[in-house]
Design a protein that fits this description.
With 247 residues, this protein is of the alpha/beta class. It has one domain: 3-Layer(aba) Sandwich (Rossmann fold). Strands 1-2-4-3-5-6-7-8 form an 8-stranded mixed β-sheet, sandwiched between helices. It is globular, with a radius of gyration of 19 Å. It starts with a helix and ends with a helix.
């Protein structure tokens, strides 16, 4: 009887370990258009080691954008927007996060910045939990970053950026349930006074990227992905231009 019980315990533990590894390593996969955008061409050179990097091929960038991905999302799920930004002359880098959760390595930007001394201005941003991690990084490195982009997220209570004078943009979808006018408004005191807030009417949380959903019930958008991405891109280019003017 004891032997049977021991075997049962071992079996249960094995199942739990397999489940835990599967959970920790799972990332929502990129959609086909995002996979295609992560390929090099005459306009943008794309590499995936040590980070997913988009380098403009026809100009030497002076401003870079470090983007922290949302929780459990393959970094390539943001490739369509990152390529579009790089096509406008900006270096764009997405680090790979521990168990696909940016909050476990909010200082990932340190190594990237050190590896690119040619970049004069840096903007740090992120989506969802990546946005929270980006705000945490910028709050801990005042004077080193020239801009902050928060997508469908908000800073944690321990990330007070209200004394910083850098271009900051917060974007969220009008059809979201987790990031709303109320939740964004409740944290305005943590952000620079001149922060730009953009509510994308008809947009939702997941259309900030191009990755697979676990259920169609997650699709709350009434705006198309192209419409939402167009507004995101326009706001990001404005932010990057402003950051490039910082001294």
């Amino acid at each position: 009887m004891k032997k049977i019980f021991s075997l049962l315990v071992v079996s249960v533990l094995a199942v739990l370990i397999v489940w835990g590894v599967s959970w920790a390593t799972y990332a929502r996969p990129p959609l086909p258009e995002a996979v295609a955008a992560a390929q090099s061409d005459d306009l943008v050179a794309v590499t995936d080691s040590p980070w997913l990097t988009f380098t403009p091929a026809q100009t030497v960038p002076e401003t870079g954008f470090i983007f922290y991905p949302g929780g459990r999302i393959d970094p390539r799920g943001y490739s369509t927007l990152m390529r579009a930004i790089a096509e406008q002359g900006y270096l764009v880098i997405i680090p790979t996060m521990p168990i696909n959760m940016a909050i476990f390595d909010s200082n990932a930007a340190d190594e990237i910045i050190a590896a690119h001394p040619e970049i004069e201005h840096w903007v740090v941003g992120g989506h969802s939990v990546g946005g929270t991690a980006a705000a945490l990084y910028v709050s801990a490195h005042p004077g080193q970053i020239d801009g902050l982009a928060i997508w469908s997220s908000y800073p944690a209570d321990n990330s007070n950026l209200s004394n910083l004078d850098i271009p900051t943009t917060v974007m969220y979808g009008g059809n979201e349930t987790g990031v709303t006018d109320e939740s964004v408004g409740a944290r305005k005191h943590l952000l620079p006074p001149a922060t730009q807030y953009i509510k994308i009417e008809g947009g939702d949380h997941h259309q900030f990227g191009a990755y697979g959903l676990t259920s169609q019930d997650e699709n709350l958008a009434t705006a198309s992905r192209a419409e939402q991405h167009g507004q995101i891109l326009s706001a990001m280019l404005e932010l990057l231009r402003s950051a490039a003017e910082e001294e």
